[in-house]
Amino acid sequence: MGELFRSEEMTLAQLFLQSEAAYCCVSELGEIGMVQFRDLNPDVNAFQRKFVNEVRRCEEMDRKLRFVEKEIKRANIAILDTGENPEVPFPRDMIDLEATFEKLENELKEINTNQEALKKNFLELTELKHILHRTQQFFNEMEDPSLLEESSTLLDPNEPNRVAPLRLGFVAGVIGRERIPTFERMLWRVCRGNVFLRQANIEDPLEDPTTGDQVHKSVFIIFFQGDQLKNRVKKICEGFRATLYPCPETPQERKEMLAGVNARIDDLQMVLNQTEDHRQRVLQAAAKTVRVWVIKVRKMKAIYHTLNLCNIDVTQKCLIAEVWCPVSDLDSIQFALRRGTEKSGSNVPSILNRMQTKQTAPTYNKTNKFTSGFQNIVDAYGIGNYREMNPAPYTIITFPFLFAVMFGDLGHGTLMTCAALYLVLRESRLMAQKNDNEIFSMVFAGRYIILLMGLFSVYTGIIYNDCFSKSLNIFGSGWSVRPMFGEKGNWTDATLAGSAALQLDPAVVGVFKGPYPIGIDPIWSISINKLTFLNSFKMKMSVILGVIHMLFGVTLSLFNHLYFQKPLNIYLGFIPEIVFMASLFGYLVILIFFKWVSYNALTSRDAPSLLIAFINMFLFSYNDPTVKPLYRGQMGIQIFLVLIALACVPCMLIVKTLVLRREYLWQKHLGTQNFGGIRVGNGPTEDEAEIIQHDQLAQQTDEEPESCVLLPAFKAQEEEEFNFADMAVHQAIHTIEYCLSCISNTASYLRLWALSLAHAQLSEVLWSMVIRIGLSTRSLGGFVILSLVFFFFAVLTVAILLIMEGLSAFLHALRLHWVEFQTKFYAGQGFKFLPFTFESILEGRLEE
Hints:
This protein is of the alpha+beta class.
């Protein structure tokens, strides 16, 4: 039960693993995830370690699997994930895996290369087909039979001055559709208008064989005269990445070429379909097992990476590792080592040897799906010191309660509870879907926190009697507008009808029948002085809750001092702190309860102000006749409490520093000496000296790390020099910070009052501005208007009051726990226990 309130007890253990069984033993330890390996070779280069070649082979297999996964995703094939956790393959199976992955990668690369070449050839034939078809259309449009007959009659073949007809050359090709305007302008400028360009768009998009994207292209034909223009046109086409194709000059040749191209396209399309079918079959077969392969390879890589952290003894037959592990899990670790030894077939058992050390152990808090969210809230502030009091068990109650104080609304709390219940009841199905949305993942991880926040909000909503800014009159109000029969001052119907506002006097008999059974009386929801009453109530409530919360935090520090056996911190730390806070702010809480109990409706007008009384307590001002005391002997008790609080300050500020200096000097002059084998003084024993020597050697640079474990030399630990000035400054800062924080932290808890009031007012404003509009219409179309208004009301309620206000209250509750509560007893300067576990590695959270 103690581990619930403190971190797990950890121990440093030494593992002696037989070389043949080391791989299987580390594999079993990775499955249970209960040990954290220490790097015994911190100064050895990563490329000079024992198993670096195996790590490289695993990385190469991982690279090939990533290539296969990329191809599968590009083919839009679903990767089968059955949730299977395969066993780690043996080292001898690495060769078979490498051969399988090599064969699969080469096959896919060969298929991709052939497919790309076929697609490139298919693209060229398709473009050539469009060129031949469009070119024939261009020539048909340009040929005019009437013009040809006229030119033949005008020219006499027997005439000596007859000029031969001009012969024009042309080139045809394909270019990107978006480059046509620029291409045309460049041709016109470079060739000075001596070329003729015709172009037409290709309707169907073409597939780029390299990228697989769909591109739109156009066919063009350029007519020119002379070789000089021909060279210019070809260079411009090359610059614009236009593809030129040979085009016959006669129609008959073009027709024959088009027929041949169509035949080749049909044959090529059949080959492409067969290639794609073969590629799909290969990828579908790989998709069924690629997830299992990835798990196996990553487990193997993690094992060899962990083995590189171990030392190898001089005989090369044993690996030595040092691990941090929980004491409560030592039996499970022993069983895992035994299973690993049996699986490897070794006859030499692995040895687990606990070590004594003064090194700080990592902090490990066991959690489940319910407590993990609250533990994450605490760890976000800082990882606790080893065996320090864990705030998470208390946060389970205090965090949702303080949130609900600021978010108290029965309706909003019910909506939040229903949303959290949906996540909780369907958590297994939602976890199986593996949603990658970060916001949803964050909300889903805190589903139990949201559930408790909603339940506590329902409770505080009942206390506030607030449901969507409206009060619920379930038990009947405790106030009556008509006094009992026979009493004077009863109100008539005319009085009620003719008055805009009336004041209920609790001093009149019969007006106040008694308190409402639970929560605030619903009549306050229609009163003019509602805010005055609620402000006073919620402000005092915030101070009471804040002081109790802080006193509880200071009390928890006592258990830390008792556990770590620091009596000095108890007498000169805890006692002055608790007395200082209780004598001032604890007294204020008592005054609040005393005023509630001592004054009734008849005497409430004469009740003095607590704020004035508390200020006069610090100023020792008791001569003001307008300020009446709350009780007899108030002045003497308050002066005594202030003097007690002031006396606690030098105890924390000066006395503790002087006592620490005296202890240091006493230990310095009474060290350890041996006379004839007899030890005197208070220095370290020989066993403690061996522990100190081991810790020092583990931190030193050594060319032969294996000698660190087996070296039996003795070396005393040097005492750390005591600096009186540093200690005095540190204690002064701590004392001033604590005394000032008692005031500032108490004022900080007033955010409970402020946010509760703001939430109630926002809810009331939303109701007045939205719902009242729909309810004010009584015509036939009022139902439609009310439906639309309710839709906007629901959207604004969820967006503003649930999400925005909920997030604001969450952050303020977080601050109250981190700053006002945890700083009283929680240092949060430790480091987290990061066990070697395959689960975290497969989820991508690789530990450095």
